[in-house]
Write a structure and sequence with these properties.
The longest helix has 46 residues. With 350 residues, this protein is mainly alpha-helical. The strands form 3 sheets. It has a two-stranded antiparallel ribbon. The protein has a two-stranded antiparallel ribbon with strand order 3-4. About 13% of the residues have low confidence. It is flat and about 90 Å long. A hairpin with a 6-residue loop joins β1 and β2. It has 3 domains: 89 residues, Herpes Virus-1 (2-Layer Sandwich), CATH 3.30.40.10; 75 residues, no CATH class; 128 residues, no CATH class. It contains 10 helices and 6 strands. Its main location: nucleus. This is PHD-type domain-containing protein. One of its GO terms (molecular function) is zinc ion binding. Keywords: Metal-binding, Nucleus, Zinc, Zinc-finger. Pfam families: PHD.
Amino acid sequence: MSLPPWCPTYSSRKTGINGEEVYCICKRPDNGDLMVGCDGCDDWFHFKCLKIPEAYRRLVYSFHCPYCEAGITGPASRGANDVPKTIWKRKCRLNDCYKPCQSNSKYCSDEHGEEYMRIMLAKVEVPGLQHDAQLQLFKDMANYHKNDSKTEQFQMLGNEEFIYDDPKDQDSLYAGIVRDDKRLMELQDNVKELGDKTIPTKKSELGMLSKYLDWLEEINVKLASQRDLNPGEDDTKGNSTTTRGKNKKKSNKAKAKQRNYICGYNSDFQTPCSVDEFVTEYSQDIPQLKGVCVKVRCSKHSGWATMQMEEREQQLSSLESYQTRLLLLMKMRKEQLHIQYYEELLRRKE
């Protein structure tokens, strides 16, 4: 993971010009502004510098700075398998409240749960609707989970079932307002295309590249053994073929380089034959074998493994982010349509 665009390059400097201790990405002394401690590197960071609203101060569960999340400092920089991420407590569902939720609840307090429900009711309030009808609607919502205890019923108030899930009995009114909505159908089609085809295809490409790099590494290890070389000796000027241990991430594997290793670039990343067959036919006098570049220190394809791996990882990350945005848009659209549906339903019952 790379640093955010707004985050400066890491500096290990701990003191300022006058010898005072400095902190954060800004490398300034503690000036009294709100700060948060990093659980990865033990440094302190200003909320303002990290672009975190101060209202989120109670929602931090486990914080890791941008450098730890990028693997520059913290556990990942010391060989840990997983790159840490900041973990947030769940925020109270009331928009203006930034307190964490109570256990097994979506609210920080019972009072905010009731307030949330009043706001939800206001969304479906119909001008002219009698007060008794509105009270009945509230009772219906409160009794939505008939088999739960009263406490559990309250905790489930405002749950997604009521406003997002399709009703069990779908009539022509529901079809006309919700099910046949063109925008909703378009979003559903896009989400399905991403989930069923685009994202799986990109994951397959990543898997194919990883498999090819494993094949290439095995070849290079055998060729190095034949040359009586130490296959663990590093050379940062070598090619981008990988030397990978079981506990290292794929992108890190692709960056490891080996002295006198063949380039290994292949345009389609398909393994053309077995490792033993390739090693047997290999010769230093030819530039290419079975579509694979076998030059040592190849300037034309320098760094290809790293670039190909990172490019596909970034593409996959972008697709997954796009999928998340589409799902959110679909959820919001469905909420709007369901509100319209329930409003119309109430009108017809008057």
